[in-house]
What we know:
Blueprint: H1 3-8, H2 13-28, H3 34-61, H4 75-91, H5 97-120, H6 126-145, H7 155-176, H8 183-195
Helix pairs in contact: 2-3, 2-4, 2-7, 3-4, 3-6, 3-8, 4-5, 4-6, 5-6
Amino acid sequence: MTLWQAITSFGDSALLLPLIAWTGICLLVPAAQWRDVRRWGFAVATAGGIVCLSKLLFMAWGIGPPGLNYTGFSGHTTLAILVWPSLGALLARDGNVRIRRTAIAAGCLIGAGVAVSRLVLKVHSPSEVWLGALLGTAVMAWFVRGVEPTLHESRSDARRRILILALGAVAIFVLCYGRVFPSQHVLKDVALWLSGHSDVFTRRIRLDSP
């Protein structure tokens, strides 16, 4: 695995989908934080839904912005920019302003690294990465802005909640990092089923073309 492949693995759904689910579970227990649960669900559904819709529209019917080398929003970029800063914000929500900003900034750096890796590895065109980055940033900023200190919890409960979230995230990382989720194959099957075509629309200009 090269350096850029290692970085791009931080944006694979095989890692991020379990992290998304674990984050949602940790927002439910021990004391259900329904406001955060609803916001997290909305953020994930919005980002993931738009990415899937953009890919399905192109693969099924060739629909996309004209004049761009485009096949749909970069899912790696979108989800990485959403998940890692949001996870940082939740882990540091009861810290001081400097700690919170550092945790969010670290997550943003991971997301930015994933975005660059998609270009270096020639998996996505600039338009696909930029659109994914804009989508991920907008949804992440909305969610992170609403993450506030948990004033209703005792300090021991807050520490326990953060520890549970962190340990689960580490376990998921160890188990899932480097794995590849077959999202493109799944979306291709769905696109063929929706369109009734014998094949999907594909990129017209190769990314390694001069």
